[in-house]
Design goal:
Chain A is built from 12 helices and no strands. Chain A is mainly alpha-helical and 261 residues long. Chain A has one domain. Chain A is flat and about 65 Å long. Chain B is 32% helix and 30% strand. Chain B contains 9 helices and 13 strands. In chain B, strands 5-6-7-3-8-9 form a 6-stranded mixed β-sheet, with helices on both faces. The chains are: A mainly alpha (261), B alpha/beta (315).
Chain lengths: 261, 315
């Protein structure tokens, strides 16, 4: 397992993808720096610094939530080719001829991708956040929610791309599958509205069923907003998505163990 | 109890592999194949394209699953990852992770075999030296030529100090000097008591290194034999002697004379053991015998005859 994780790090460094993350980190830092130059006219109002810091904290946490969601999206696109790439003709023979079970191989690869790209995302966000803290004096532990929830979101996407990668063996098809899930979840976000538009109970039932089955990473991002602003979130999107991820990953392992290469 | 030397490292019994083809048309890649490879033996799989040689390798390594039959490698079924612990494999048309350097590939392969990089450092260096790749150890694999890829492929197959090596077209794309070097490496590996199973279209190469041979065609094993048996023209001998005296006759029960000159004769016998009768006859006539040599054919001729026989039977 360590070998595969180590290989993920070596591959990340060699493919120079890390520079994309570094560039985004720099852009984030520059944006934060630019924000610090904005003068706020308070028009004679009495300043309560704790209110100002709290407001700034919420704004920045919201911003970092969006920033990290974008990094997750980027990582999904970048890592979509990792599993199919491992199983192309000639390379599959190399990996599968080693004394590792297929289940371990797939889990190690997925874990390696999650750890490596997760770490890069966390570092990227953390650098920006520390910089913002130094500039604005907003130290807020709720950034941990943002990081944790987005890493869970990445787990869910990774299970989708792993499954699609095993079934199709194609990077392009894997990216398309991820897009399909993203479109499906965006549409199903409106499942209540769709239910009101149609007359049929059967259609309503099917739409609702799909809503509960398909992962809801968009709603997980909204949940993070609730968590950081102190509101009590609806946990259904998280646990239903994690169940979906577990089932689909199990299916990926099951198919992988039975496939000829 | 059998000694380790004579025990089989690979046992294949009634192995069948059927691939599901398009429109429900199944493709029989292997049909009731049975063979065994002994410890310390170089065993070659010969056959035209599509004979099932690579599929047999893939079944041994659990890259494809057998439809029926039993397979054991190192005493384990292929479904057990332990069966691959002491096996080195050089795939045909391999595509190693190309973000790695040659040395990186060696270390990564060692880790996949559960070995620590520290313990295999000197072995990796030795193997790179052995296959003539030390100079290119720090170069990315994506920059290697086909011949260099074969060399590094052979080196990675050896990193775990395997008991068994499975090499699929090991000299494919390698220049003539490289081929000789690879042959030398194979002989060195055999001298260490390791078993090698070899897929190769280059029959002259196989003839020079292999002990045992299996000829496959369309998923069937046509013949399993030693190289010596396959290349010996059965019951034909060339006898060099002073034959300038009266003409020699041999009984039709013993065999027949194919050619005769003052200095040599070629005979074809009913049975190999009857060569002693011919020698006795010559000695009775006080003919001085210089040599008795069994007539051999090349492996290529023997292979073509075997494949030709099968085609003849099919038509």
């Amino acid at each position: 397992m360590r070998g595969i994780v180590h290989d993920c790090i070596v591959e990340l460094l060699s493919r120079r993808v890390i520079y994309v993350f570094a560039a985004l980190t720099v852009i984030g830092l520059l944006s934060t720096l630019a924000a610090s130059q904005v003068d706020i006219a308070w028009q004679g109002a009495e300043l309560d610094m704790s209110d100002v810091n709290s407001s700034l904290g919420n704004i920045f946490l919201g911003g970092f939530n969006k920033f990290m969601s974008f990094l997750v999206f980027l990582s999904v696109m970048i890592t979509a080719g990792q599993i199919p790439g491992m199983l192309i003709r000639g390379r599959a023979d190399y990996y599968l001829s080693k004394p590792i079970s297929r289940a371990s191989l797939l889990m190690s690869k997925a874990l390696g991708i999650w750890l490596v790209y997760g770490a890069v995302m966390v570092v990227s966000v953390a650098i920006n956040y520390v910089f913002a803290c130094l500039l604005f004096g907003i130290y807020d532990a709720r950034i941990v929610y943002v990081i944790a929830m987005n890493l869970l979101g990445f787990v869910i996407w990774l299970s989708v791309t792993t499954f699609a990668g095993i079934v199709t063996g194609s990077t392009g098809m894997t990216i398309m599958a991820a897009f399909f899930v993203w479109i499906a979840q965006s549409v199903l976000d409106w499942h209540e509205g769709i239910g009101q538009l149609v007359d049929s109970d059967v259609v309503r039932y099917i739409v609702d069923a799909f809503y509960y089955i398909i992962p809801k990473t968009g709603q997980i991002i909204d949940m993070t907003g609730d968590l950081t602003s102190g509101n009590s979130p609806d946990w259904l999107p998280l646990w239903s998505s994690l169940i979906f991820a577990a089932v689909i990953f199990y299916l990926a392992v099951y198919i992988f163990k039975r496939k000829d290469y | 109890m059998q000694s380790v030397r004579t025990m089989s490292i690979i046992e294949v019994h009634d192995l069948t592999k059927i691939y599901g083809g398009a429109r429900g048309k199944d493709i029989v890649a292997l049909d009731k194949v049975s063979l065994s490879v002994k410890h310390g033996e170089i065993f070659a799989l010969l056959g035209p394209n599509g004979a099932g040689k690579t599929t047999l390798f893939k079944v041994l390594l659990s890259i494809v699953r057998a439809t029926s039959g039993t397979v054991e490698i190192g005493g384990y079924p292929p479904s057990n990852p332990e069966s691959r612990r002491k096996v080195g494999y050089l795939p045909e048309n391999h595509r190693f992770p190309d973000h790695l350097t040659g040395l990186g590939l060696m270390r990564f392969t060692a880790r996949l075999h559960g070995l620590s990089a520290a313990n295999t450092k000197s072995r990796a260096d030795d193997l790179l030296e052995l296959v003539g790749m030390s100079k290119w150890a720090e170069t990315r694999i994506r920059k290697y030529s086909k011949g260099m890829l074969q060399r590094i492929g052979l080196a990675q197959a050896l990193i775990s100090d395997p008991d068994t090596l499975l090499l699929d077209e090991p000299t494919d794309g390698v220049d003539p000097v490289g081929k000789i070097e690879i042959r030398r490496v194979l002989e060195k590996i055999r001298s260490e008591g390791k078993s090698i199973v070899l897929n190769s279209h280059l029959l002259s190469e196989v003839e020079s290194v292999a002990d045992g041979v299996a000829i496959l065609s369309k998923g069937h094993v046509l013949k399993v034999s030693t190289v010596d048996e396959l290349t010996r023209r059965s019951c034909q001998y060339k006898i060099e002697a002073n034959l300038s005296g009266p003409e020699i006759q041999i009984s039709p029960d013993v065999g027949r004379i194919l050619s005769f000159t003052d200095i040599s004769m070629t005979v074809e016998l009913e049975d190999e053991r009857l060569i002693n009768s011919v020698i006795d006859e010559l000695r009775v006539r006080k003919i001085e015998i210089k040599s008795v040599v069994p007539i051999k054919v090349t492996l290529e001729q023997s292979f073509l005859e075997t494949i030709g026989d099968e085609k003849g039977e099919a038509t």
